[in-house]
Amino acid sequence: MSTFPTPAELTASNFETLEDKASQPLKTVAILGILAGVFIGLGGVFAITVLSGADAMPFGVAQLLSGLVFALGLVAVVIAGAELFTGNTLFFGSVAFGNLAFLPVMRVLGVAYVANFAGSLLLAVIVFLSGFHLGGDDAVAGAAVELAVTKGDKAFTTVFFSGVIANFLVCLGVWLALAGHTVSQRLLGLLMPVAAFVAGGFEHSVANMFLLPYGYIVQLGSDELSGIAMSSIVSNIAAATLGNILGGAIVGVTYGYLYLRDR
Description:
The protein is an all-alpha fold and 263 residues long. It contains twelve helices and no strands.
């Protein structure tokens, strides 16, 4: 393979990587899935910090900054190694063209999804107990709850289509990162797609597994903040999950069709 792979070379290499990931023991997937939930949640912690008191900044600038720092989560997933449900929806490209069987892939995705949720919830509790929400004279708490309320108020169909865009960008970032051979190359591949999805306010199910429960916990501990209902959290994550599946599958299936269907 050349230093800069062609689209066909990158597709073949990425499908091989996906097949290796899908063959891991489920115990390994579970542990790495918990780590992925924590990593993405830490990106959320960074983004909430940037958004605290951001009312003084132009909306676009605040969104861009939050997107750039949120990329920490996916950078950690790809470079340190973890199993992220949304990135692994690229498996559907391998399934569509016979490289992977459907049922084993669904088992891996299911374990990763549950593990991501567990890691996200664990981090939400730990971050709350750390007193993070008290920062900036409670500005952090306000930002966390406001972000959760904004997400929870969206209609199911809105979140679904937003989820399609979000994971299309996330999987594009993963796809580009896998073309790199160094940490800096992979970082550059990830950064812009991830920043774009966050800046645009699109819905990522695993990010929301941290952001919504964390906002809800902060709200429970406050006498002044409110507006998040448990039903809104469930609806948002369900819709985002379905949209994310479609968005990731589009990337994997499209490149598989273009470059691997004749094999």
